[in-house]
Design brief:
- The chain is mainly alpha-helical.
- Helix content is 66%, strand content 0%.
- Helix 3 (29-41) packs across helix 10 (126-181) and helix 7 (87-96) packs across helix 8 (98-107).
Length: 232
């Protein structure tokens, strides 16, 4: 798909070009950014308009994924998921290291959708979520457009391979520094070996009889069983 988009956008102009740039992130975000940057260096449209189109598409394609996580809290499997070991650590990442987690999701392949859904599941502030999406998407677009305009299409196309590698290495260094410099009780959930930091999640489905959202009037299953009288 990466190889098709530059050729395809070369045949588009005006509204069709902007719409394609906006819609492509719903299919493949990285390919969409490359397509927009390619259109920019080819002079198919003003760079500022292309940046606006791709940023709007990136944010729109990710903003709704938050609500998938929120919706999941209404279903029974959310109870079982919330009780699994390590889920509380993921919740801590969303609550306490939100920006670092969102940056990781933007640049490390395979982490975007799970992270964005987790933000909804753990009830991160939605305004903050959207603002951080804008920030991380702007960083990504700025890097890719700069590489295309400075190094040409070859450098830009190569970035789709080595940029994630750099992101993974940077994340590993960040975690390593935290691991070697943390103080007892002060290191956060992004520090390695965090199994001992697992803890209950008050207010989450599955803990202390917390009901499914949207069914708050219903009694937890245990209470229902206790309240039922044995038939004679």
């Amino acid at each position: 798909m990466f190889g098709l988009i530059p050729d395809d956008v070369a045949h588009l102009t005006g509204f069709a070009l902007y719409f394609a740039i906006f819609a492509l992130p719903f299919i493949q975000e990285d390919a969409a950014v490359i397509g927009a940057a390619t259109a920019s260096i080819m002079g198919l449209a003003p760079t500022s308009f292309l940046i606006a189109a791709i940023l709007t598409g990136l944010v729109a394609s990710d903003a709704w994924k938050y609500w998938v996580g929120r919706l999941a809290r209404r279903y029974q499997w959310a109870h079982k998921f919330a009780e699994k070991p390590g889920v509380s650590v993921a919740g801590d990442l969303v609550r306490k290291e939100f920006v670092q987690t969102m940056l990781t999701a933007r640049f490390v392949p395979g982490t975007r959708i799970p992270t964005y859904v987790a933000c909804g599941f753990f009830k991160a502030n939605y305004v903050r979520y959207v603002l951080t999406l804008v920030m991380t998407a702007s960083m990504y677009v700025a890097i890719m457009f700069t590489l295309f305009h400075v190094g040409g299409a070859v450098a830009g196309e190569a970035a789709k391979f080595w940029l994630p590698v750099i992101a993974v290495l940077a994340l590993a260094v960040y975690i390593g520094v935290r691991w070697f410099t943390h103080r007892e009780g002060r290191h956060g959930p992004m520090t390695p070996l965090t199994e001992d930091r697992d803890h209950p999640l008050p207010g989450m489905p599955g803990f202390d009889g917390t009901p499914l959202e949207g069914h708050a009037s219903e009694k937890p299953a245990d209470e229902k069983q206790q309240g039922e009288k044995p038939s004679e």
